[in-house]
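Regression test attached.
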Amino acid sequence: MKKLINKPENVVDEMLEGLELAYPQYLRRLENLEVMVRSNKKEGKVALVSGGGSGHEPSHAGFVGCGMLDAAVCGPVFTSPTPDQVFEAIKAVQTDAGVLLVIKNYTGDVMNFEMAMEMAEAEGIKVAKVVVDDDVAVMNSTWTVGRRGIAGTVLVHKIAGAAAEAGKSLEEVQAIGEKVIKNIRTMGMALTPCIVPAAGKPNFTLEEDEMEMGLGIHGEPGVRKEKIRTADEVVEELVGRVLEDQPLQAGDEVAVLVNGLGGTPLMELFIMNRKVNAILTAMGVKIHDTNVGNYMTSIEMAGASVSILKLDDELKGYYGAKADTVAYKHF
Amino acid sequence: MSYSKEQVRGLLLKLADMIDENKQMLTDLDAAIGDGDHGHNMARGFDAARVKLAQGPAEQDAEAMLKATAMALISNVGGAAGPLYGTLFLKGAATVKGKEELGLPDLADFLKAGIEGVQLRGKAILGEKTMLDVLIPVQAAIAADAEAGEPAVQSLEKAAALARACAEKTKEIVATKGRASYLGERSIGHIDPGAMSSCLMIEKLAGLVKGG
């Protein structure tokens, strides 16, 4: 394994130290914790707390700042953070308006964040939650713990974050978050596995000419392996699955997120976007906005996901509101 | 069998050692159908438990030690295993409150309360390829033996064999809980990591009770 790290057991701690030193104007670290909070606290608004395992940078600390998150809780690589850390984050950023937890739908994340919510409620803090499950890769979620939360989570941060920044109530911010979740779908794929520093080797292998469709973001094996195809063919399948789950019609407006998993060059993400755009445009769908880049990665995994968010006027309004964070800026 | 609080401390420390010795194996099981961190996460949690136990007052009773272990697991394991094992020990700890000596019936009660907590937290039942597939049958067997007045050494020896058989049997089950659930049919042929860590704990307990 070739990585630019020191000791594997220190990766998260050292990453957060380096992050804070780079961007103190955006975020600061809570002492002795793996929690990053917004540097300039804004009183009176609903505070957004999110997080999960590390290894998905810039998610989630990269989205701490004006118009998005107030705190990001960073667990060990690919491991949900513990309730005490989430609880400390809640206490640090809470205001009278309450706290919204944005949780990705994984068993560990849900349980740990729920335990923190119980701890916070026991102290009289108003907390609500939304659980993001945008991944359409797993078709029959009756037989699983439900769909996973992947790159679409970033747009929940953006839109719910904007509602909070605008002074909406906890119930309203939660409702907006739920609305984004209802209207966004994502599907991803991978060309190579990733290596968790503590493990030292990948969880699975892909042959030189193989790719994995519907891969999750934690290095776990995906839904189906197959021979690699062209970018256009891959995009046709990803977008096809997304549209199968949430059909669109001519005249619909969407926001697109082409997300790299860490190991795929921007060049390839832009090539993918060309096809995403072509498919949607041919359908008569209006692409209101596009983002291309690394938003929710899986360490060094080569691969990408495509998210399509169906917009209405309310969502468009918050989507277009100001955001100023390390990894997402909109002015 | 009648365990004093000193012996409970010794047992917890031995469990921590055992988890550490087996962390690679548990991680490998988790790599096959999860994200390959179960062993390392559990080892980190039990290391923290060791520290907490050493820091606690020498006079602390079994309930306090089990609770300290629970909190160490909750605060250090993360993932799904942290809340689940943490809840197992936390709810179980409450059942030994005020008890000076612990016997087989107390173990049955500990596991019963712990299992209920795990079910509430994780929303799983028997047969879904989880730690419950070891813990539920083992608890039932121990409870029946305790009711019948069977000696602890014998009961736990049988429980250990049962635990191993149940863990192995999870190979045949399609995962519907946790990260493995996304693999669907591909999860068949693989032992659930949580079932294995539970099995190892029962086996260690049986071994210690036998060895004295």
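Expected vs. actual: identical. The two ends of chain B are 9 Å apart (CA to CA).
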